[in-house]
Amino acid sequence: xxxxxxxxxxxKNEIGFLFKNGDFFGVLEPSIYHYFDPLxxxxxxxxxxxxxxxxxxxxxxxxxxxxxxxxxxxxFVELTSQQVALVYQNGRLADILPPESRKLYWKKFVxxxxxxxxxSENFEVKNAEWLIYANMDTLLDEIEKFIYSxxxxxxxxxxxxxxxxxxxxxxxxxxxxxxxxxxxxxxxxDTRLQNIDISGQEILTKDKVSLRINxxxxxxxxxxxxxxxxxxxxxxxxxxELQFGLxxxxxxxxxxxxxxxxxxxxxxxxxxxxxxxxxxxxxxKSIGVKDIILPGEMKTILNKVVEAEKVAEANLIKRREETAxxxxxxxxxxxxxxxxxxxxxxxxxxxxxxTEKVGNISVYGGLEGLxxxxxxxxx
Length: 379
Description:
The chain is of the alpha+beta class. Helices cover 38% and strands 35% of the residues. Among the domains are: 122-191, Immunoglobulin-like, CATH 2.60.40; 194-294, Band 7 domain (Tetrahydropterin Synthase, Chain A); 313-378, no CATH class. β8 (83-89) and β9 (92-97) form a beta hairpin.
């Protein structure tokens, strides 16, 4: 090569930028170039067009001063503060651009498609499953940075809030939103029947008997928006009101009254709590006492009472049966008194019972004599 001459080769998949004295001088198409440069003022930067992203300190300068070159060789995207862009390369999503981005992509070998999305009003991510799951490996950082997503499970709903303000209720499924220039949150609420247990409540009855009661209740959140707008913590409020209702039900009735009607506590607590919860979008479905635990000494007393009641009941039944037997014997005697035949039949019945346990009988004086002697024995 001759002295002070430079040779540059631009291949078919490449393009060059010519600089003289540090200033951009033009674009070099694929070819071989020779320049006489004794003062080393010429420089050529070569770019691979198979790598479409173009990043250069002079990018803004080229956009502003070389409009024809930009139109010829580049796909240019410039976004406002309320826009994002999806960049596709050969039909595949390759990049997500945030608001106020400016970027250049080489044309020719890689097909570039840019989808600009306005997020000023509607900031929901369309085709969220495809965007998040299909590109999780290659665009993980961009997705986590620019997109807020949450999976609302089946039998649940989601409450979408932006900047702390309720926007709408979401159905089950993947929900995704552009989390740029706004704070987004999705709160998950279970719409199925919920249970709450009130355990170990020490309460005095009206007659000053201490009881330990375990209560269980089931409820539904019928209006989630009303619930969260009225209560900071619906579970704590419901728990507290169930405690109050239980204490009111037990404290106004005696132990005997509570034990006689097992459903009394359930009915009283339900009547107390249901109207209160309706105002907060909560429906009480059922209330039930699981356990009523008495103090040890009270158990002993009640056991003695029950035992005495059972003994008295048994004695009453015994006396009733004895009275009935005596009355039956008296009626039988009256019948035999006026009816010799009936008397003789009774005598034969007694004789039959006596002879059941006797192996041999010797009879003297005939059957008549035996019956007379038997009567003497009975009398």
